[in-house]
Structure formats: C-alpha cells, structure tokens
Amino acid sequence: MAPQKTRGTTRDAGTTRELDVDALLADRGIRILVCCGAGGVGKTTTAAAIALRAAESGRRAVVLTIDPARRLAQSLGLTELDNIPRPVVGFDPAAGGSLDAMMLDMKRTFDEVVEQHATPEKAEQILANPFYVAVSSSFAGTQEYMAMEKLGQLRQQSDADDRWDLIVVDTPPSRSALDFLDAPKRLGSFLDGRFIRLLMAPAKAGGKAYMKALTAGMSLTVGVMTKLLGGDLLRDAQTFVAALDTMFGGFRQRADQTYALLQNPETAFLVVAAPQRDALREAAFFVERLAVESMPLAGVVINRVQGVEGGLTRGRAEDAAAALADEPERATTAALLRLHADLATIADAHRGHIARFTTGHPGIPLIEVPAAATDIHDLDGLRAVGAALSGRPHSAAAGVGA
Amino acid sequence: MPSTSPSHGVRLHVVTGKGGTGKTTVAAALALALARQGRRVLLVEVEDRQGISQLFDISPLGHEEVQILADPSGGSLWGLSVEPKAALMEYLQKFYKLGRAGALLQKAGAVDFATTIAPGLRDVLLIGKVYEAVGRTQGRAKERVYDAVVLDAPPTGRVVRFLGVNDELAQLARMGPIRNQADSITALLQSRATVVHLVTLLEEMPVQECLDAMAELAAGGLHVGGIVVNEVRDPVLSDDDLDAIASGAAPELADRVAGDLESVGIKNPDKVSAILLREASDHVDRLDLQAEQDQRIQAQGRAVFYLPALSGGIEAGGIGVLADELTTQEMV
Fold first, then answer.
1. Domain ranges, residue B251
2. Cα–Cα 20 to 30 A to A63, which of A349, A373, B74, B271?
3. Does some domain include residue B293?
C-alpha cells in the first residue's frame, strides 16, 4: 500500500498511533474537516461533536450535516431544511469561538447552481424541465455532488467574510462511502463524454438534417435510445442537455475546484467506522482511496467500541459465575459476572475486528470512542463524544449511541 | 407456514433497515429459513457489497446465480449480486436481440449513462432483474424456478425511492417498452406477493427511521411485512436485581457482591464489585431505552420478530441460529 499522509502524529509504520483530535483542531492551517464512512456508523454525530469541540476551543466553526437524526438536529437548533447556516444556541463561547450548523437541501442547492450559472431566462427553462426535476431530486449521486458544491460555497464565503475558519462536513449516506469522492468525477466524465454530445446533436442541428451528419452507428444508437426510452423522454433529455450547454463550463470548473480543495493540505479527512467487519472494510477502502487520490487522511475514528474496565477476563468471569451459580443468595453476583462476561465477549470481537484493520493499515492514527449506554441528543452528549474523540473522556458515559 | 404469518403467499421479500442494523444478515437468515422448509430460494443483493458471499463464506457473487447450499429438506439457497451493466445488456439482448447495437451503446457512453447517471435508470435495471427472477418459469408446465426471492434492499433512507423508481420513470417515459416494463414491475411490487420487512435495533435513530419508512412505504402503495428487531440482548439480571441496581441500593449491594467475589478467589474484590455495578447500571439504562423503543415498535400493531445478539458475531453457524429463530417465531 502507498504511504499515507498523516497529520497530528508522526508516522511510525507497524504500530497504531492515537489520533489527536485536539491537535488537529488547534492547527489553524486546517480549514476543512471531512467525516466519511459507511452508513450507520455515527458520522453525523462525530461531525457535530468535532465542530462543537472546535468552537469551544476557539475556532469559528460551521458544520454541514446531510441527514441528521431528528433529535440530533434539534440539539443543534436545526429545525428546517433551508440551506442556511444558523448559530447553535447553548455552546460555550468563552474561548472566543463560534458555532453554526446547517442541513443540506439537495434540490435547493442544485437550483442555486443553475440560477448562478445561467441567464434568468435559461434558468427558468431548465428548472421547469421534467428531466431536470428528475435529475435534481434523484440523480444517482446528486446528494454527493451537492454536498461537494455546498462545501465549495461555504469555503468561498469563509474567505469572503471571514465568518468561519473551520468547516466540518458530514457526508451523505451513500451506497458506498466512496460515492462522495466519485460523484464529481462521474459528472465530469459525463459532461465531457461522447454521449452528451450525441444527446445534444439533434437540438443543435435541428430537424432531420442532423441524422445525415451522424455516422450510421450514431444514428442507430439514437434509434435504439428512442425505442427504449420513448421519444418524449429522449426529447426532454435533449432539451435539458441543450439548455445546460451554456453552463457546462461552470459546472465542470466547480467540480474540479472542489475536488482540488479536497487535495489541499488545508483539508483533513476523518474516516469514521464502527467496530464491525463491514464498516471497517468500507473504512479500509476509503483509506486506500484517499492515498491514491493524494487526499490528506488525518485518521480513523472508531465509534461504539465496547470496552471492559479492570482486568477480569471473560473466562475468569464465567468460571466465577459458575462457582456461584448453586447458591441462590449469590445469584445476583453470578448474574453480574455473566453480564461482564458478555461485555468482554463483545469487547473481544471488537478488538479482533480493529486489530485486523490496523494490521492491514499500519501507522494510521486511530481513536476509539466507547459505546454509550444511551443515545446522544443534546450538546452535553456531543461534548462527551468530543472529549472521548480527543482521548480525554471526562465521563464514563461518553460515547456514540447510533 | 401459518396463514397469519407475514410471509403467507409472498414471492418477493424485500428486506431493508437503517445502515448498521444488520439487514443483510436478516435477509440471509430469512432466505435460509425458507430454504430449510424445502423451498428453492434466491437471495439477491443490489449494491455490490458482497455481503452475501462474506456471510456464507463463499466466492464473491456475480451476475450469475450460484447455489449457496442445499438443505436436506429438498430446499436450496441460491445467491446473486445484480450488476447494472450486465442487467442492461441482458435486457437489451432479451428484448431487442441487440448484438452490435449493444456494443455501440457501450462505446458511446450510453451504458455508463444509463447505469450511473440517468435518473433512476440504474435502480430500474436492478429491480428489473429481481422482477425477472421472481417471475421466471421453466419446463412445459411453466413451473416457477424460485419459490421465493429475498432482496437485500438499499437502506431505509433510500428504499422507498428505490422501489418507487418505476413510478418515477413512468412519469418521464410516457410510452414505449421501458414504460411497459416499469408498469409491470410496479404491479408486482404493489401486489400482495411482495412485502417489505424492516430491520431495526432497539435504539432511537434506527427505530425512528423504521417508523418513518413504514409511513413512506404505505404512502407508496407497498405492503409492510414484519418488523425484525435485531441484536436483542437477553436480560442477564433478574427483575429484582435490576430494581436493586436502579433504586440505588448500591453501597449495601457493592459490599455483598465484593464478599461473593472474594469467596471465589477474585482479586481486588471491592474494585471489581464497583466495576460490575457500573456495568450493571449502564445495562439498566440500556434496557430502559430498549423498552421505550420497543413500545414505539409494538404500537405499530405489526408482526414483530426478535433476533438475539450473537456475542461471538455472525460467523460460524450464526445465520442458521437466526434462521431457526425466525421459523420458531413463525415469520416464515
């Protein structure tokens, strides 16, 4: 595997380093933190907890969430999906920081891109096109692309008005964590591709004349498309593509810029995982991919890790429970020992999964966040997660619930 | 199976849930339970995650159906990972006998367009393949090839759009063969032959997503089957113990436990006793949360099935244990 770019700790192949989130947040050169990983591993909670910790350590932070759980959203004061960053009430501004939060509105963001890049007349035409309506609400990868677009916008705004010095981004719950990286390129290759020129040809040339201009192969392709999709759909698609023609340059440029932003040393990626095989496999894919793309990996966060206090092993606990089992008045102690043995079994399984990951990816800074007894739904809960992320838990309850 | 079970008369089982709830595991357990009743069952994944092959520890699945196992009952379990490009080519070949044009479409980038960028077309192709497998017949008697198909579907956040994609497409394609295909698929999905099972954990966010998805599925004309609560932990402590711990009778209890620990030779009994009681207190909190979430699920008035947490993981026969649970609880 290619060497990883790491930050916050020195690279030391063969051993696992602890990820120091506080050092990362203290580095003013870091302007963007991207939290990525498989669905259901606590990405949004991690992003929110990091943004809160950053703000309370003096950073002027904004967190872009994609699809937060209702109670988590409420804890950040997010009540509507309106694409506007709003101040979070209840954070501690003593260190001179600030905290804003927003939820991504995918459709609205896409509409704004169109409005920004096209003349008002053309924008209106595009926004009303049935093909556009479908693309902007269900385009495979629209959410990923729009998350990137919004990130680019926030970064631009932070340069313009200096409102933020740190943008924390949550990534969409994609089929694969890699979709987030692939969406802009996919759009780019589509815009550059032969197929789009093929779709545009009729609208450009008009009427039947274009058929003659095309090779027999091309016209056969169009014929097959028409047969498959029905003439209406193809016409809508053609009109859409033709209308977009004037703004392709803008689209393409923005996608390239945002991609370059992700390779910039001011960006750091946090790969979020849970101590399960599937989630860690996704994390491994992502870690490898970031290396290939020369994107800076800060480290891996593993949420909901079951730990056990003290040195009592599973075997010892089970033996002791068995020895006490025959005495009814000691049943409670036996039950407590069995509970401990269960937790130790889970902890062992988690250790095993994490060990397999670190063996395959040595030297990557990693931090484990302990499993919480209950769900996180307020700023105190997020604070506890932030403390655990920094390796300085201030309470046993710190952890990520879901 | 009992006529009251949510599987009665069902040919397509769609399994969904929030990411991380174990929907692939549950889909596999359901498929295995059906196979163990002597049925020929196809287990399908559509997101190319290779979850099925990992669970059963077999070679990665491709666009060819392969037999995963044969059951002594005469049933069998087959696996398939649908790949959109292969599905598109297969579709074109079947309906249009396209040899050269298929290659041309590929060259022009139309295949990439159709399978990655065109709104919903990728999903249409994926469901199209599932639809084909559900309806496939063989021999002169036109017997069904599969008694049941179990689909490991996208997670709850995307499943309604995934299943409703044919409706969406029908609005775009107002006529033509794709429109016809979309209409037949919608008819199957909205019929009683298809049910959507939801997998959840007894945690707030998965339950919330489960309830939201149920409302959305119903609004989309789809039938909800059972709710499968995964990774349920058995109460290790008796109700009396739980009450004692919850009521804060800790000091007296801590001494008693420490004494018991000492009697079986555990070192540092006071320290270990404190640790065990802290763990128990967390356990009580977790059980309270679970009970609260369980009530929300029960309030739906649906069939609910509970699968135990396998503390050693799902490898090595774990799927079989879960399959037997589903059979015992009459999900199949």
1. 239-283
2. A373
3. no
Cβ distance of A401 and B204 shorter than 8 Å: yes
Query: Which residues in chain A have their CB less than 8 angstroms from residue B205's CB?
Result: 69, 375, 401-402
- Stated as kind and residue range, the H or E segment containing A51 is helix A43-56
Average pLDDT over chain B, rounded to whole? 86
Q: Tell me which of B225 and A236 has the higher pLDDT.
A: B225
- Please report the pLDDT score of residue B96 as a whole number: 64
State the DSSP code for A238.
H
What is the Cα Rg of chain A in Å?
25
Inside any domain, residue A105: yes
Q: What's the confidence (pLDDT) of residue B35? A: 97
Contacts of A198 in chain B (CB under 8 A): 108-110
ipTM: 0.80
Task: Determine if the pTM surpasses 0.90.
Answer: no
- Are B127 and B219 found together in one domain? yes
Same domain, B153 and B51: yes
Tell whether A135 lies on the interface with B, counting CB pairs under 8 A.
Answer: yes
Q: Which residues constitute the domain of residue A27?
A: 21-110+142-181+266-309+351-389
Residue A126 to residue B63: CA distance in whole angstroms: 38
Query: Residue A273's Cα: distance from chain center in Å?
Result: 11
- Please report the pLDDT score of residue B194 as a whole number: 97
Determine whether the interchain pair A274/B119 forms a contact, defined as Cβ–Cβ distance below 8 Å. no
| A70-79, A212-221, B56-65, B282-291: least confidently modelled range | A212-221
How many angstroms separate the CA atoms of B77 and B65, rounded?
Answer: 10
CATH code for the domain of A88: 3.40.50.300
In chain B, which residues have their Cβ closer than 8 Å to the Cβ of A189? 112
Total domains present in chain B: 2
Q: What is the CATH number of the domain that holds B161?
A: 3.40.50.300
Cβ-defined contact of B117 to A139 (cutoff 8 Å): yes
Query: For residue A391, what pLDDT is reported?
Result: 82
pLDDT reported for residue A209: 43
Residue A206: the pLDDT is 46
Alpha helices in A172-247 (DSSP H): 179-192, 194-205, 209-213, 216-229, 231-244
Answer yes or no: do B167 and B253 share one domain.
Answer: no
Nearest CA-CA distance, residue A214 and chain B, Å: 13
Q: Is residue B220 part of a domain?
A: yes
The Cα of A400 is separated from the nearest Cα of chain B by a number of Å equal to 12
Question: Which letter does DSSP use for residue B113 in this model?
Answer: I
pLDDT in tens, A386-397: 999 988 765 444
∠ at Cα A255 (A41, B164), nearest 5°?
55
Residue A200 lies in a domain: no
